[in-house]
Design brief:
Number of helices: 3
Strand content: 5-15%
Order of helices and strands: HHEEH
CATH architecture: Irregular
Keywords: Disulfide bond, Glycoprotein, Repeat, Secreted
Subcellular location: Secreted
Oligomer: single chain
Protein name: Thyroglobulin type-1 domain-containing protein
Pfam families: Thyroglobulin_1
CATH superfamily: Thyroglobulin type-1
Strand order of the largest sheet: 1-2
Helix content: 25-40%
Radius of gyration: 18 Å
CATH topology: Invariant Chain, Chain I
Structural class: mainly alpha
InterPro entries: Dev_reg/Prot_inhib (IPR051950), Thyroglobulin_1 (IPR000716), Thyroglobulin_1_sf (IPR036857)
Largest sheet: 2 strands, antiparallel
Length: 102
């Protein structure tokens, strides 16, 4: 049926246009057994395939900000239970609040 060919063409075109983030994510998620390695960091991509400004490592609880190519921005990594950096402004959420208290 002509409809099936069109669907096939669309899906192969989408595969060719995978972004760096999607390739990175897919390479981690599909190891030899089809599952991500335990404790692996899996990049988070938005609906357009771009790196989300904030990335988190599920098994360690660390979060950090990245630039558009997925590179970690210096000084943005926070551990579990720490206030996270707002990746749009580069500030921790309660910096202003702490400043007002002192």
């Amino acid at each position: 049926e002509p409809g099936l060919d069109l669907v096939h063409l669309v899906s192969t075109a989408e595969q060719r246009r995978k972004t760096h983030c999607e390739h990175h994510r897919d390479s981690v998620q599909t190891s030899s057994d089809g599952f991500p390695p335990p404790g692996a960091y899996i990049p988070q991509c938005d609906q357009n395939g771009l790196y989300l400004p904030e990335q988190c490592h599920g098994s360690t609880g660390h979060c950090w900000c990245v630039n558009s190519s997925g590179q970690e921005r210096a000084g943005t990594r926070t551990g579990p239970g720490s206030p996270r950096v707002d990746c749009r402004t580069g500030e921790t959420p309660n910096m202003d609040f702490i400043g007002k208290l002192t």
